[in-house]
Every structure is written in structure tokens, then in C-alpha cells.
Amino acid sequence: MAARTLGTRRFGTPARRRLRTGLLFVSPWIVGFLAFTLYPFLMTFFYSFTNYDIVSNAQWVGLGNYDHLIHDGLFWTALWNTGFYTVLEVPLSTVVAIALAMLLNMKVRGLAVYRTIFYLPTVVPIVASSILWLWLFNPSFGIINDLLTDVHVAGPGWMFSTLWAKPTFVLLGIWGSGAPMVVYLAALQGVPKEMYEVAQIEGANAWHRIRYVMLPMISPAILFNVILALVACLQYFTQAYIMTQGGPDNSTLFYSLYLYQQAFQDLHLGYASAMAWILFVIVLVITLLLFRSSSRWVYYAGED
Amino acid sequence: MRLIGCLRQSRRRTRTVGILGACVMAVIGLSACSAISSTTSSASNSGGGKGVTTVVYWNMWSGQYASLIQKLVNQFNAAHPTIHVQMLTVPEANGDAKLLSAIAAGDPPDVFTEWNPEIGTYASTGAIQSLNKYETGQYKGLASWMYPVAAQWGTYNGQLYGLPMSMSNKELYYNKTILKSIGVSTPPTTFAQLMSDQARAWKISGSRVQQIGFYPPGDSWDAFTCGFNANSYTGGQYSLASSAGAKAEMNFMAEFKQYSYSAVNGFTSAYGSVSGGSENPFDMGKQAFDLNGPWVGADDIPQDDPGMQFGVVPMPTPPGGGKAGCSDVWGNYNVIPKGAKNPAAAWTFMTWMAGYHNAAWAAKTMTLGAWLPPSPQIASQPAFTSWIAANPYLKVFSDGMNNAGNDIVPVSPHETAYENALTTAVQDVETGAKSPSQALSYIDSQGNNS
Question: Cβ(B197)–Cβ(B288) under 8 Å?
Fold first, then answer.
């Protein structure tokens, strides 16, 4: 009875009306989310237990797809490639983005120009930048190998080498660190100058000020960017699809690329759905671990 | 004051709801428009209204080829007052995926031109319709009218699923200038001579390739299959690992391990970019030999290096008792997807494009697209024979279509996985990542377990 009274008070007629109006306003998003995100998301779970080729009815195979995945060499290759890329790309791009943000946080002439230059790669369409990098890293005609030759270094095969193809994608990823850089820049500008001054008075050198003042203060931004980068790396697809199609020798067959090939080239939609769910679980577990660990290294002002 | 405030609030709410209502009405209105337009379209699709049946036709051509096909479609429309073919080009990179999505959505085109080896995969899943039911009456002799190998590429489990409108094979191009520069005056007639000549034509400076002799790319396995007698698909299973021909072909691929894979492919891909994406340094005068189709001489070379002196000969027979002068054959095949709204009109369009009962017209189209005809009847038409006479190198291709040893990619439910595995396996051998026997086992496992 008490609960009902409270409920009536809380959601009285004007409040209900406001709620209804609000829901009506967001209804296009809700409908879109239900129809184009939640429904396909749940259906892939069902399809992951079926043999489904898009044009005929799905046939129930139980855990068959998951069992097949465990014995599929290419699945493990794709997982290894993606893991390798993620482990290199996430820390390197984080360090580079923070370093750039620190540089751009300095008071020097022409700062707006530098900020624009470093952010520019982010707004270049992925297809255009991929083609550009293919040319830059071409082993025979590319400017990178030309420069290396000038200093008497034999340039590698880059995208055409099984050894160098993944590191080349990492370099491409670092080049596009403009978006996290902007977030770090905003975070850096939120760090009170007094904190650096106090640290300096207490005898902290430049490294100490970065290590014990700056990094803790921008740690929420680091957590945010690391999670975004991690999810993006685990779903890496477009550049590899454009530049290498998974070659040479499957050295750039990333997880999402293999998933795409299974789904839309081989018509193994059920198999691809199983792969999608495995990826989802991997992303979920890593993200949860990151969130759990964040209490040890992320500092939120206002919290004790 | 309170009353005014309430009124204001009420007006604001009314305005809010009004705006929202307008938005909802606009959405409903747009949906209605869309519904009306789709109704009109389906009325026209079903041949209602003016009695004209619309055939929706998708293909993956672009650029000048898309314009050419549109011209052919216009000619069909002009000759068929009761059928209107509406052509739409879809990007090649995801054309097949778009087709499948359209089939799954229940709104596929009536005709789709397929050139990828997908007929077996699509036929086995029911994505495309068997055409056998249309081979009656005036179309009864259609299968025997085609080159046997042309019919074979479009046939799965004894049923015709794809009807070719044009064909291609591959013969050996050679650059006369490069051969002259290495002291060779005549093209190779033996496999050993080809390998010896090509080895001398390479120019490599440090780790950089400057000129290629001959190099089979990762996706070139099919081009050599009949020559090595390496086709190993029987009883629904791939068995390359136990085939002497396949072993010989993979050993041949392994010979190119001596050339740096990354250097060669970097060179090739760069020339591909500057020569309009054909990924062929031969067109640019930077490769001595190339196993390729008639369009290279008819379209690519005149565009990329018009002054190039080149010739074409049949591919010399590989060692180990392969078939002499044979080629891999494939083509542009029209299929009717599952759920097509006007299959009968689609069939009329497809047979017209194939040149059945329409050979003189089809012969002219072959010369425009630098294609080979799907039937010897078209090949004997004056338009085609005079084109061959004017371009003697094309005679090698035209004669090649009559070679009884010609072969196709096996039409199987696992064609896609098999082709992907082939490309990877050849790359593995050329990079030295796998031995020939490991590569063959890999192809079998991917093809049979997909």
C-alpha cells in the first residue's frame, strides 16, 4: 500500500505525461535499437547453434559450430593475428596519443596549426588513407623504403611480407591517433596547474610530475580510450579488407575479416554467428577485467 | 500568474506534441510514399498497366564495361517492346554479398551476371534456380549449342544454373621487345624454353624488382590446372594431395620461391594502381610473359602501353604429360536468383544476351567487349571472324576454345572455400611458408571440410 502511494506520488499524472512525451521523443532510437541492434544480436545467438546459409532455413546443429571452431586452424590464426595486433596497437597508440597531447598542451606559437595537423588523419576516409599507405609502404616504389635506402638500410616488404604485415597495420593505427589525442588534451587541460606547482615545490622532477600528478589525473580518460581502442582492435576489419584481404599467407587474416569471409563469401552464417559470440565474450571479459582493475589505477577527483 | 504559467506550459506541451505529431505524420507520409512507389513498381514488375514486364538486372561491371552492357541492354529493350530490362551495377567487391542479402530479403533481381566460381555454392543452397525447365520448345537445343566447357561451368548436378553471355580463356602473351633484349627471337614452344627465357628476363636491383620474367600470382592455380592435369575433384571430394598432376603444378609454383614474394607483389600491386587496377606489369611493358585473357591485348595494352610489341602463343605443355595447348575456361554467366519475380522474361533476356537465335548480334558484342563467344555458331559469324582476322593474336584464343583438353574450376558446393584455399596455398608455397605437399593437403582440408 505504501509502495503504491509512493509510486503514485512519484509518477503522478504530470510526471507520467512527461515520461510519455520523453519516450515518444526517443522512440525512433528505441525502435531502431530494438529492430537493428537487439533483435539481430539475439538472433545471432540462435543462429550460432545452426547451419544457416542465408537463403534456406536454418538447421539446428547444437554446439557443432563451436566444436568445429576449436578444430579450425584458420580460426586460431585469426585469433592470434588479432591478439598480436591488439597487444601492440593499444599500448603504443595510447603512449603516442598521450605524448602528442602533452606536446599540444604546451604554449607555443602556431598551436592551432599543430593540433589540426595531428588530428587531420582522423578525418581522412579509411579507404583513402589505406591506399595512401599502400603506396608509402610499397617495397619497390614506396617513399619509406626510398628513405631507408638513403641511410643504407634494406627496407622490408611491409604489407607484402608475412613478418611485417601486422606491424605495418600497427604503424597505420598509430598514425590515426588523433581522436584519443583530443580526449587526452581535454583531460590535460583539466589538471589544475597548482598541482604541478606544489609537486615542483616539493622537489618533484619532470618525470615525477608526469608519473605522480599528470597520469593519475588523466587516468579516467586513459581508461575510456583504452577500452575504446581495445574494442576497435578486436574488431579490426576495414584496413585489412582493403589492403591485404588477409594475405600474405593469412598473416593479416584478422578475426572480423575471417568472420566476414565465413558469413558472406562462404555463406556459413551459423558458423560466423558462433565466431561473433566468441568475440563478444572475449571483448566482454577483457572490458570487465579492465573495469575491475580500474579501481587500482584510475583516480576520480571527489572520491576518497 | 499561475494560470498564465499553466497556460504557457500547456501551450508548450501542445506545441511539443504538435511537433512530434508532425514528425510522426512525416514519417508515415514518407512510408506511404515509399509504399506507393513500391506498389507502382511491383505493378509494372508483374507486367500490369501497359503490359510491359520489367526485368531487374544486376551486374558487377564498372566504367566502360558498364556503359557497354547498358548499350546492349538498350538494344534488347528496343527489340522487345513487352519487356523492359532495368540495369543496376553493384560494386564487384561485395556484389555477391548484395545478391545474397537481396535473396534473403525476398527482393532479388530477376537476372544477375556471375563471373566468380559461385554457381555450385549457390545452386547447392538453392540461391539460384535451375534453368532446365526453360529448355523446351525453341530452346530445346540450347545446351548442345554451347561449347561443352561453356555449358559445364554453368552446370551443377546435371542441371543448368548459369547461361553464359561471353567466355574467356588464357593464353601466353610475350613482350617482343623484352625477348629481343635477352637475345630471343621466337616465342617459346616448350615449357623448358619458357622457364629458361623468363629467368633471363628478370631485372632485380638489390631487393627491388625492376622487370619480371614470368610469375604466377596467388590466384593463378586454375590457369595451369589442365596443362598439369591437376584437376582433382571426384565424388564430391578434393584430392589434390594424392594427384600427381597437382603435385607437379605445386612444385612448379614452388620454383618461384627464388624471387622475393614481397618484392614481386609490391611491384605488381604498384603497377596495378597506375595501370587502372589491372595489377599487371605486362600491360606496362615490365614483364616478359603473362598468361592472360583476350582483353589484355584488346583493351589493357592499347590503354596502358599502346606502342608495345607483343604476341600470343598457346601455353607450352608442362612436363609430366599434361594436356597440350589447353586452357582454363570461364565466363560471364547469367543466373536467375530464387524469388525472382519475372523469371520467364528474365530467361528471354538471358538467351538474347547469350546469342541463342541471335548469333549475328552476339558476334558483334564479342568484338566490343573483347570476349569469346559461348557457342561455335557465334564464332563463325562474319563480325567475329573479321575481328579475329584483323587481330591475329586473338586467333590463339578463338582456336583455344575448341581444345578438347580445356578445363574449368570444379563446380562444387565448396567452390568459394576451395578458391580461397588455393590462393593462400600458392602464396604459402611462393613465400616458402609451406612445402608443396603441405599446401596441397591444406587445399583438400579447406575444400572438403568447409
Answer: yes
Q: A180 and A94 in contact (C-beta within 8 Å)?
A: yes
Are A15 and A124 part of one and the same domain?
Answer: no
Q: Are residues A6 and A109 in the same domain?
A: no
Q: What total of structural domains would you count in chain A? A: 2
A53 touches chain B (CB under 8 A): yes
Exposed/middle/buried for residue B10 (C-beta within 10 Å: 0-12, 13-18, 19+)? exposed
Q: Is residue A269 part of a domain?
A: yes
DSSP state of B197: H
CB contacts of B256 in chain A (<8 Å) are none
DSSP β-ladder status, B203-205 and B171-175:
unpaired
Provide ipTM, 2 decimals. Answer: 0.73
- Domains of chain B plus CATH, in order, are 53-169+330-400 (3.40.190.10), 171-328+407-449 (3.40.190.10)
Please list the residues that pair with B329 across neighbouring strands: B169
Distances in Å between the alpha carbon of A242 and those of A128, A130, B264? 10, 7, 19
Do residues A28 and A170 both lie within one domain? no
| B260 has a chain A CB within 8 A of its CB | yes
The model's pTM: 0.80
| A&B contacts, CB < 8 Å | 108
Most A CBs within 10 Å: which of B262, B422, B443, B449, as the mutation test of the A interface?
A: B262
Q: With H, G, I as helix, E, B as strand and everything else as coil, classify residue B406.
A: coil
Task: Give the three cell numbers for residue B313.
Answer: 602463343
Task: Kindly state the DSSP code that residue A191 receives in the 8-state scheme.
Answer: S
Query: Alpha carbon B216 to chain centroid distance?
Result: 18
Give dist(CA B259, CA A297) in Å, integer: 51
Peptide bond between residue B217 and the one before it cis (omega within 30 degrees of 0) = no
The C-alpha cell at A63 is 554446439
**Amino acid letter, B117:** P
Residue A125 is assigned to a structural domain of this protein: yes
**CB contact A261 to B (< 8 Å):** yes
- Closest residue on chain B to A20 (Cα): B17
Print pLDDT tens along chain B (450 aa): 333 333 344 444 444 444 444 444 444 444 333 333 333 333 344 444 578 999 999 999 998 899 999 999 999 999 999 999 999 999 988 899 899 989 989 999 999 999 998 999 899 989 999 999 999 999 999 999 999 999 999 999 999 999 999 999 999 999 999 999 999 999 999 999 999 999 999 999 877 889 999 998 777 889 899 899 998 888 889 999 999 999 999 999 999 999 988 889 888 887 765 544 456 889 889 999 999 999 999 988 988 888 999 999 999 988 876 788 899 999 999 999 999 999 999 999 999 999 999 999 999 999 999 999 999 999 999 999 999 999 999 999 999 999 988 989 889 988 888 888 898 899 889 888 899 999 999 999 988 876
- Residue B378 neighbours by CB distance under 10 Å: 29
User: Is B15 within 8 Å of chain A by CB?
Assistant: no
Sequence-distant (≥ 6) Cβ neighbours of residue A154 within 8 angstroms: A148, B206, B207
The answer to whether residue A58 is domain-embedded is no
Asked, for residue A168, whether it belongs to a domain, the answer is: yes
Smallest CA–CA distance, residue A139 to chain B, in Å, is: 5
Q: Are A199 and A208 in contact (CB under 8 A)?
A: yes
Same domain, A172 and A69: yes
Contact A55 B416 (CB under 8 A): no
Residue A97 sits in the same domain as residue A221:
yes
B57, B85 contact by CB (below 8 A): yes
**Do A122 and A191 have their domain in common?**
yes
**Residues A97 and A21 both lie in one domain:** no
- Do A139 and A89 lie in one domain? The reply is yes
Which structural domain range is residue A26 located in?
2-37
Give the pairing type, strands B83-89 and B111-114: unpaired
Question: With contacts defined as CB-CB under 8 Å, which chain B residues touch A155?
Answer: 207
Using the beta-carbon criterion (under 8 Å), do A267 and B266 form an inter-chain contact? no
